[in-house]
Amino acid sequence: MPPRGPVAAGAVLLLALSGCAATGSTGAMNGPGMMGDASAGYHFSRLSCSAPTSLPGSTVRVVLADMGMSRMVTGTAPLRAHMMLRATPGTVTAGQVSLVVTNMGWRTHEVVVLPLPAGTVEGQRIPGPDGKVDETGSLGEASASCTSGTGEGIRAGTAGWTTVTLPPGRYELVCNLANHYADGMHQELDVVPRA
Question: Best label site of 53, 67, 96, 170, fewest CB within 10 Å?
């Protein structure tokens, strides 16, 4: 039986974050001094639940966090706050893909899978007056705490997961709560044909 609890959660987080710096994704954390330590400036919450160990298809692990925030924060996230969404691996084969999302931050988060149109790059969607981007064409989301599918958001220190079927193409994983996208919570996911 695999180890569980804070030690296992910490090991998963370190593995996920160590892979993040090499993904080449853009976002709030990239910049001078950030590439060597993707977790610099973050204070992580402890996980109280985790996803099942065997989910269908390829597994993409997504870590969510808030820079410089703690359990004392409430309300709508301010613009220009540093938030992190890091997914590994950044490329998977077409078919079933299970997103395992751990919210190591202090605010509630979610992950929505959106198609990325040809000729565009991640991070260029324009949020509306509500601080959210258009979810038209969404292929699924993980937004429930300690379970799969949709809900009221993945609370701090919990995990959520979902399995979606993705054809070859480019997708953007986003947190679509107010101002979270503008604060850096997005990453491209590339889906390649099966060999």
Answer: 53
